[in-house]
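Follow-up to my post from last week.
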Amino acid sequence: MSARVRIGNGQGFWGDSIDAPVELIEGGPIDYVGLDYLAEVTLSIMMNQKLKDPSKGYARDFLELVRRVLPTLVEKNIRIITNAGGLNPEACREGVFSVARDLGISGFRVATVVGDDLMGRMDDLLEAGHELRNMDTGEPIRAVRNAVSSANAYIGARPIVEALEQDALIVLTGRSTDTALTLAPFVHELKIPWDDWDRLAAGTIAGHILECGGQATGGNYTHWRDVPEMDRLGYPIVEMWEDGSFVVTKHEGTGGLVSVGTVSEQLVYEMGDPSSYITPDVVAHFDTIHLAREGPNRVLVFGIKGSPRTGTLKVSASYLKGFKAAGQLTVVGPDALEKAAFAADLVWKRLERAGVTFAREDRSVEFLGYNSCLEGIPIEKVRPHEVVLRIAVRDADYEKVARFGKEIAPLVTTGPPGVTGFAGGRPKPSPVVAYWPALLPREEVEPRLRVHVESI
Amino acid sequence: MKLPLRKLAHARSGDKGDGSNVGLIAQSAEAWTIIQEQVTAPAVKAHFASICRGSVLRYEIPTLRALNFILKDSLGGGGTESLKTDAQGKAHGQLLLYMEVEVPDDSPIHGVESEGSQGT
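User reply:
Got it. Predicted complex:
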């Protein structure tokens, strides 16, 4: 028995390595490449872009990648599945076609999947009795209705499979789950029935291992000294087998490490209840996963079990929740820590004199290099001779946050000695885009999903 | 004698709403027994007392020799709202590895030279 399909992931988030996907596509045998561009609040940023310019609202970085790899994709029939479409998959497709015309390439198909965007339907959904209660707090979304800036349902692998069946070389979706980018080609190639829960769970777990790119191949690994040539880290590939077992690997000749250790760490990343990993397509059981070393940089994953999907889809909404700003200065010399704390205190006192106060939970003072992350962890701490003072605030009132920004630079000349490192101008207020997770019956979304394929 | 968890295990963490998750993976069968017994939810809550304001949930994944912890209310408002440097709990895995556990004097764990990888 040989592996039936090779699937890689070249992008773990918007802002990930721009060279990794090129190396994945050109550096060795591969059939499908998934690219994940969406984080929890990325769609809110895209909404702003789309409101200003209706031809925007997708991950434009993706077009730069297409420019570099399109000849190889067409020549070798390597297929791309990505959520780079964001809030505007059709505009993203036009971008891809425009790049293709520039390069003089034609004879391929691009699919778009739309219907996950719920923003235009929000009031209808509320009227129909869907309260979209926050999964963490239980509060109905009407409490923040006017501040909501985006709302999308997480959609699964089915529409992507439909697109692959229509011979799309590139599939552009909006808010697909990260794992669907891997599950879909596995289902498509092996004709897996939609009630074969164990194999759907296997494809989902393969997707979970891939979805953060280099985190499966030695990036962020506890034993970082054991990872060879991290400067040219190969991105992860799964070789899926007929029975749902698969091998995690990377291209020959790349740096990095695929071991039981690196794969285990990625499996537990962002995990909730391991017995119930819920996706639109299946509930996967992470407590059924077995790992074994199969060879150098090859880890076999097997034994995976799944259960039927649930009746709901997760909705990822975002809303504007005031503003925040952060500023930092370096404090050096004798008593650096005491001087930094004294400087922070000056900021609060001066703001108070100016009539500007912040609630205790809306202000933050950290000493980077001493306790910014270590806060209260029981370990011996060394008194530093230099620290970075980082002060931050948040508030519903833009003006208050802006006023705070004006109190950082003066510390260099009006505070304790040894205050330096002020650069980059006054900290400016930036909007806080907060996350609102909710559930919605799948019948409200799935019948409205549309797959459209166009050729060039 | 007491040893820090980094001599027995490795870890990775990330955000889960306004909480974080920390996965802890034992390096050997001996280490797994010790971790299962000693790295309890209350022990982890005590270790992160200043960081984690909510409860700690603990799950076991024996096939991976791993424990998964959810540290509720540990990110100062979560991903985008938080004012913290570590707004996504990326540091929590490293921080858990400072926690100390009691390892019997005759345990083979003491013989492990490095902090032990599982090789290529």
